[in-house]
């Protein structure tokens, strides 16, 4: 029972950390669904599957944090990435003749 409680809390903790919505506006249906899932007698591989899901969610979060830290340009568009790269070496992008470039 204690192992299952630990798995439930770990799964809930990782889902909260993965959420992008503020805590006050976050729907409570996810926690209710997890509670219902854990309330039923599960199959023999249930604990192992939940542990795999927790590990996957934790790994995804860590991967995103590392991408943000070591590759800050990964979520920019191509044009924004080129502009940021030029600024990094001390240059500015030229103004396009049709007026779509940087001013």
Overview of this structure, please?
The chain is mainly alpha-helical. 62% of the residues lie in helices and 0% in strands. It has two domains: 2-64, no CATH class; 72-103, no CATH class. Helix 1 (2-18) packs antiparallel against helix 2 and helix 1 packs parallel to helix 3 (46-70). The radius of gyration is 22 Å and the shape is elongated. It starts with a helix and ends in a 15-residue tail after the last helix. The model has no long low-confidence stretch (mean pLDDT 83).
How many helices does DSSP assign? 4
Low-confidence stretches: none
Number of strands: 0
Between the first and last Cα atoms, what is the distance in angstroms?
63 Å
Helix content: 55-70%
How does the major sheet shape up? none
**Strand percent estimate:** under 5%
Q: What is the overall shape? A: elongated
Question: Structural class, please?
Answer: mainly alpha
C-alpha-based Rg, rounded: 22 Å
Order of helices and strands: HHHH
- What's the overall average pLDDT, rounded? 83
